[in-house]
């Protein structure tokens, strides 16, 4: 409730006529207006009185004044906030309208551009059909125009065309040819591609150069080309240097490709020879395995071991016979080298025999 108002005689009487501790004084002080409190303070200043009442009156007066000021300030702030909100809303609406207007203008400009390009397409198709002006589209500027036609899909709005393939045919070029030219334009840029045309760089060389840009061996920007550590400006003053550099890197790449092909062929030959050797070894191993299968005891009838026993007996007899023949050779003792060889053979035979004997005893343990 606002404390502003006229002087109130009843509240004034309670304020000046009752003690500060009286409930009526306190009630009157709470509801008294600023004018009434100021009147009571003035009374005590003129005639004197209880200092506690004067302090209470002044304290209440400050409180009421602060509250009134705060309320006024809050009211002013509310008005200001409302105005700010209205201003922001207005600005947002204006910005939206401006954006819509710009969008509409852009749409109009795009539509005008699209209609202009459609007209250019009709003109180009007519020129090709009537004059066979195929060479017109060999220039870089024509490629830039074709790139826009493809990117904006202008061909879709041309009656009887509708597709990129048909549009390329209508201007006397194949889609593959146009796409390759556009790939060169994207890889090299307008200025470098123009320079290449002036230097009569062929399609095959351009394709190789384009691959080199993908590999990072050649870096091209709007002003220069970097080949390895060499940087060459793209302009007429450096046309000769540029041509030499292009020829050199293409020649180096051709040599490198030839070397790689030779290495691949050599590798194929080595692999083929190695495979052939492995196949021969495999055949020999299979042959030996087939031979040894006859001596495999698994699943065999003991009676069939006779053939193995016979082979063992014949082998031992042959060994003994051969060694015996050597022993009776006259003059053998006078040839220490030959005698040492025979001694080695006999020792090897004894060692093998002992090994077989040990295996036999471990398996059958006939003396246990």
Give me a quick take on this structure:
This protein is an all-alpha fold. It has three domains: 9-99; 114-246, no CATH class; 307-351. It is 74% helix and 3% strand.
Outline the fold blueprint:
Blueprint: H1 9-17, H2 23-31, H3 34-47, H4 51-131, H5 140-151, H6 164-170, H7 175-198, H8 203-215, E1 218-220, E2 224-227, E3 230-233, H9 239-292, H10 306-327, H11 336-364
Antiparallel strand pairs: 1-2, 2-3
Helix pairs in contact: 1-2, 1-3, 3-4, 5-7, 7-8
Number of strands: 3
Sheet/helix structural class? mainly alpha
Number of domains: 3
Q: Give the end-to-end Cα distance, rounded to a whole number of Å.
A: 127 Å
Helix amount, in percent? Answer: over 70%
Radius of gyration: 57 Å
Strand order of the largest sheet: 1-2-3
Question: Poorly predicted ranges (pLDDT <50, ≥5 residues)?
Answer: none
Query: What's the overall average pLDDT, rounded?
Result: 76
What is the overall number of helices?
11
Keywords: Coiled coil
Coiled coil: 239-273
Q: Can you walk through the features of this model?
A:
- With 368 residues, this protein is mostly helical.
- The chain folds into three domains: 9-99; 114-246, no CATH class; 307-351.
- The protein has helices at residues 9-17, 23-31, 34-47, 51-131, 140-151, 164-170, 175-198, 203-215, 239-292, 306-327, 336-364; strands at residues 218-220, 224-227, 230-233.
- The chain has a three-stranded antiparallel β-sheet.
- β1 (218-220) and β2 form a beta hairpin.
- It is elongated.
- The mean pLDDT is 76.
């Amino acid at each position: 409730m606002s404390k502003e108002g006229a002087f109130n005689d009843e509240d004034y009487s309670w304020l000046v006529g009752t003690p500060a501790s009286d409930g009526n004084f306190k009630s009157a002080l709470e509801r008294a207006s600023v004018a009434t409190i100021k009147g009571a303070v003035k009374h005590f200043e003129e005639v004197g009185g209880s200092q506690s009442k004067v302090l209470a009156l002044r304290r209440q007066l400050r409180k009421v004044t602060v509250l009134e000021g705060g309320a006024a300030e809050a009211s002013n702030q509310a008005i200001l906030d409302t105005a700010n909100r209205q201003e922001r809303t207005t600005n947002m609406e204006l910005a939206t309208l401006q954006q819509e207007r710009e969008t509409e203008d852009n749409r109009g400009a795009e539509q005008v551009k699209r209609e202009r390009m459609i007209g250019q397409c009709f003109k180009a198709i007519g020129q090709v059909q009537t004059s066979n002006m195929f060479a017109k589209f060999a220039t870089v500027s024509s490629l830039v125009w074709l790139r826009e036609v493809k990117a904006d899909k202008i061909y879709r709005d041309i009656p009887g065309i509708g597709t990129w393939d048909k549009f390329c045919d209508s201007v006397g070029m194949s889609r593959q040819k146009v796409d390759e030219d556009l790939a060169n334009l994207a890889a090299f840029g307008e200025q470098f591609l123009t320079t290449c045309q002036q230097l009569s760089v062929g399609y095959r060389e351009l394709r190789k150069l384009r691959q080199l840009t993908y590999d990072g061996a050649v870096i091209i920007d709007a002003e220069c080309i970097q080949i390895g550590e060499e940087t060459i400006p793209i302009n007429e003053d450096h046309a000769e240097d540029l041509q030499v550099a292009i020829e050199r890197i293409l020649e180096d790449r051709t040599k490198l490709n030839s070397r790689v092909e030779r290495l691949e062929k050599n590798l194929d030959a080595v692999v083929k020879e190695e495979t052939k050797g492995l196949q021969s070894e495999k055949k020999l191993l299979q042959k030996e395995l087939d031979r040894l299968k006859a001596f495999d005891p698994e699943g065999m009838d003991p009676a069939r071991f006779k053939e193995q026993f016979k082979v063992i007996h014949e082998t031992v007899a042959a060994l003994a016979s051969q060694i015996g023949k050597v022993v009776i050779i006259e003059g053998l003792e006078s040839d220490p080298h030959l005698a040492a060889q025979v001694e080695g053979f006999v020792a090897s035979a004894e060692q093998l025999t002992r090994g077989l004997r040990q295996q036999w005893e471990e398996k059958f343990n006939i003396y246990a």
